[in-house]
Design brief:
about 130 residues; alpha+beta; Alpha-Beta Plaits; two-stranded antiparallel ribbon; about 40% helix
Length: about 130
Amino acid sequence: MELMKSKHAVYRIAYHIVFCTKYRNKVLVGPIEVECRRIIGETCYKYNWKLLNIEVMPDHVHLLIQTDHTTAPYNIVQNIKSISAVYLFEKFPSLKRNKFWGSGLWSPSAFYGSVGNVSEKVIQNYINNQHSS
């Protein structure tokens, strides 16, 4: 993960994000998996998010995304879910007819984990020892 800079900030921020298909339907296989990977990669590129890793499982997706300090992880997930669902339903119309009629592709929930280069304990010690430096 690289150190990034903007006009007023220096940052190294990445998120481990996991989200599931609605009803945990195992539909992200074969050509749907391939297209899901591609559209998520394109979405990250479009929004200038660095996709460090992706794994598409039959009923959920794992992402490792590095982003700037002004982007909320919730917004990342909302954009990726929305764009990918619209695209996958257009590309694979039977997907909506057979499994997701009347609903979206993705479950409304997600997991968000922050990723860093040091542990929480190291940061706690660093903060606690500021006055003794």
